[in-house]
Design brief:
single chain, globular, about 40% helix, about 350 residues, two-stranded parallel sheet, 13 helices, TIM Barrel, alpha/beta, 9 strands
Amino acid sequence: MFTIDAHLDLSMNALEWNRDLRRPVSEINEREKNLTDKPDRRNGTVSLPELRKGNIGLVVATQIGRYVAPDNHLPGWHSPEQAWAQTQGQLAWYKAMEEDGEMVQVNDLLSLERHIELWKYGQPNQYRPIGYILSLEGADSIISLKHLERAYKHGLRAIGPAHYGPGRYANGTDSTGEMGKEGLALLKEIERLGIILDATHLCDDAFWQALDNFNGHIWASHNNCRALVDHNRQFSDEMIRELVNRDAVIGAALDAWMMVPDWVRGVSTPKVMNCNLEVMIDHIDHICQIAGNALHVGMGTDLDGAFGREQCPYDLETIADLQKIPALLKKRGYTEADMENMMHGNWLRFLRNVWA
């Protein structure tokens, strides 16, 4: 089944993990067999051939560059200008993939419909480019609002104001506090440009403030349910309900610590914690029960978002295994139309509404 994944850190893996994503996952992992600098070495799950194998023809692909103040101990850049330069290097990688025929940017209704037609009726998957919608995870690299307009001209179509910790425009996961005047000005500019606001990673204070001050289109590219795993990174039922009211779509994530409670990084293992794809369906079903339908959830896996097979469902070898999900949904009583909506239809409906 054709699939859309709303959150993949492709350029980060290419540049910071030094992975040639044009190669098979097995080859990438083999090349990393003697590397120990990152916990997910030799455990990667994502590459462009695997996306094609899994019929995942359209993805939301990120840029990311965090600024950290002197008292912020998270990894990141020491100035917004350095963070901007990082994201521009990531943009250059996407452009290089376009020049090589591996990827194609999707940034408006015409390019969306053209790409869907290509994957529906075109040549075999192994020869098709992966479509990507450019997203910025955390807005720290936006030096000024003029830079946001410049990023839009380069194809940026979605933005999350925060990532982890305190940010220049908004506070994110594991932090608290509302946005100041800079954050509110950013929201206005996002709305003016017609960029999608990604509510993922906003702390609770910033989440509610953003929804009160933003009248544009909102989605959550990769989030799970706080009722199942109690952490501020997840959405509460009240937050999910409000996103549904705003006609948002929420992408189900496959990071194990977000899927099962009591996960301990570097200690827990997927098998021991019984973390499999069925757990993903638990989170999906919880959202559907709140919404009263299957129209507000999709795939937003975050696979290889600084983790690999050591921290994702044990029955997933590569991202191509997303094709196991429709059968699991069917077991839960979802219809064929529900499955198609959750694998791609909900994201398509959302994008067509944004770009109409």
